Amino acid sequence: MIHKNFKNIEKVVFGRGSFDNLTEILAAHRNQNGKFFLFVVDNFFKGKELENRLPALPEDVVRFIDPDPHEPTTEQIDSLRDEILNTRGLPAGVIGIGGGTLMDIAKAISLMFTNEGSSTLYQGLNLIKKPGIYHLGIPTISGTGAEVSMTAVLTGPEKKLGLKCEWTVFNQVILDSELIASVPVDKWFYTGMDTYIHCIESMNGMLNNAYSLAYAEQALTLCRDIYLGNKAGQTAENDDKLMVASMMGGLSLTYSEVGVCHALSYGLSKILGEKHCYANCIAFQHLGDYYADGVKEFGQMLVKHNVVLPQNLSRNWSDEQVTAMAQVAWNLTHMWNHAIGPDWQEKMTLEDIKALFRRM
Ligand code: NAD
Ligand code: ZN
């Protein structure tokens, strides 16, 4: 059996206020290439206190990006890359500040600065040819694990698939839980549930192992404190825990795999444009057949935080849309292999997957 051999983030700073270490960290890398940095920052921070704390010098490029209209696209990455290369040349590095969207934009553009052509050429495993430039991530909403993962998920004209390789992983991450305090409660819930679902899926499948399980169990303990414990809610202490849980959930699935919920969620995102974490929640509530205990506990978390998920959405979906979503899900063979087994195609048909979508 061939075992996974994964690269972790090179350096991590953890702690409240650690954002201010950025100045010193960047100083050591500024002398590379065109000697300027590209900052890609979640538009939420435009005009906020954090904008004034950015250690950007006059030669640096600061780009505020709105993560909301859509998940990162190949076109968006290619055009930003072309624009920066044509006007300024190759940066010393890229700093991503924001949620999973900005983490993925920073990771993807770091790679695309040095790999020619469109990012659509590199959607998949180990298709990238050269290492990217130095890249540093600062998450401001926790749950996706994008800060630690070896993929930068992009939506292209044909597929929603990551640029996945060792060079995708950040050189440096700064985990400053003060930055997630302003996350609105609904997003705090959905994004945190991504971590929860990562752990449940990672530990319920063929690739589960002692290494991935240790991360999953610890991240689940943290999620239970944050979302179900006596002191549940958005507190400073829980924000610390959530940042760590997000990272551990990401590490757990890196050493194992996600499963049925993520396969369906990709279908929802690709065809209907639903955001990853919300799409997971929409799907997960109906997956008691696969993850009985997890779905039950998820239900308790929904109740505790008064979150009401939409029901009967599929009534408004055409058969064409359901088929397209099921096809996206079906193609994620690595997830089904993990969740159901290498003989999953003998146990599942496209119609079965369509039926899962019709539960939503
Ligand atoms: P996001 O980056 O889309 O942001 C969600 C919302 O939260 C946005 O409105 C944003 O402006 C807001 N926000 C962020 N930080 C905030 C703060 N501190 N205060 C107030 N508002 C804040 O959310 P996400 O759920 O973290 O990321 C979703 C993306 O991550 C998707 O594109 C998905 O494909 C990707 N993803 C990647 C991986 C990976 O391993 N690379 C894994 C899962 C998901
Ligand atoms: Zn996820």
Walk me through the structure.
The chain is of the alpha/beta class. It folds into two domains: 170 residues, Rossmann fold (3-Layer(aba) Sandwich), CATH 3.40.50; 174 residues, Up-down Bundle (Dehydroquinate synthase-like, alpha domain). Helices cover 45% and strands 12% of the residues. The strands form two sheets. The chain has a six-stranded parallel beta sheet with strand order 1-9-6-4-2-3, with helices on one face. Helix 2 links the parallel strand 2 and strand 3. Helix 3 crosses helix 4, helix 5 runs parallel beside helix 7 and helix 6 runs antiparallel to helix 7. The protein is globular and about 55 Å long. The chain starts with 10 loop residues before the first strand and ends with a helix. The model has no long low-confidence stretch (mean pLDDT 96). Zinc ion binds next to helix 5 and helix 9.
Instruction: List the strand order in the largest sheet.
Output: 1-9-6-4-2-3
Query: Do you know the CATH topology of the largest domain?
Result: Dehydroquinate synthase-like, alpha domain
Number of strands: 9
What does the main sheet amount to?
6 strands, parallel
Portion in helices: 40-55%
CATH architecture field of the largest domain: Up-down Bundle
Q: What count of structural domains?
A: 2
- Supply the number of helical segments: 14
Bound molecules: nicotinamide-adenine-dinucleotide, zinc ion
What is the terminal separation in angstroms? 38 Å
Mean pLDDT: 96
CATH H level of the largest domain: which superfamily? Dehydroquinate synthase-like - alpha domain
Structural classification: alpha/beta
Order of helices and strands: EHEHEHEHEEEEEHHHHHHHHHH
Gyration radius, in Å: 20 Å
